[in-house]
Model the fold of this input.
Amino acid sequence: MKRITGIAAVIAVILLLVACTGKEEKGENICQVYYVSNSETKVEMHPHVMEADTPEGRLEELMNCLATEPEKLEYKAPFSMGFRVLGITLEEGRLQIDVDAAYKELPPITEILVRAAVVRTLTQLPEVSMIAITVEGSQLFDRKQNAVGWMNAEQFIDNDGNEINTYEEVRVRLYFADESGTKLIAADREKHYSTNTPLERFVVEELIAGPSGRIDGLYPSVNPGTKVVSVMTKDGICYVNLDETFMAVVNNVSTDVSVYAIVNSLVELSTVNKVQILINGEVPSSFSSSSFERNLDIVTTVDN
Done:
């Protein structure tokens, strides 16, 4: 009897371990599904436990999530907003989603939110790196009649909470370093960003992220390891508080060039006239001034 009881105890422990292991594996198989709020002013993410165990099955499962009205009525499924998905094609990490003409009837902001929800949801799959939406086989254009093309999650900036506020399309001018690291080159960048993020902070973070690949003679102008502590604008002066990594020179780009990369980029905004850069809340003693104005003397072009 004691032996049987012991065996039963061992079996119970094994079953308990199996159950716990299953829960851990299940917990690691969670994707965030993004929905559009009923007010069509923001996107919300909600966890979904994946059941499929094949790449095709996972893609189909998330597509179904995006097309199924959730139980809560505070938000809408992106693929159930008045248009139909006609088909999908996945090749080498690029997922093309073809929709019917009703898609073009979506209000501009709603259309951006739908794109944000779809792209952020589906690019969580390791098999999907880029997404393109076509309308009955034709190229999708935004409200300014610019081709939308291929999209990834990085094109839709979100905040740190559980919600993504309204996306707006913004065009900013950023200053990156030339190959020598002694001059700056201006480059325009269009991107959708969350209105929850101050535009000034968005500009600084885009500079830190660097140019889109080392092409056309553009190189990072700010140490990519720099952390943004805070960004605030008051009375035309933008106060940019960074961590000490900013002071570390990389790619032969001097601190002065990095400073004016930030200054010139921020002064392009209508709200900024001067910039004060702080390191952990203090103005470095090595800086020639407590605040900086635009400096175009170190700006050049790719042709030069």
Observations:
- Helices lie at 2-27, 55-67, 108-122, 199-209, 255-267.
- The longest strand covers residues 167-177.
- Confidence is low (pLDDT under 50) at residues 1-27, 159-164.
- The radius of gyration is 25 Å.
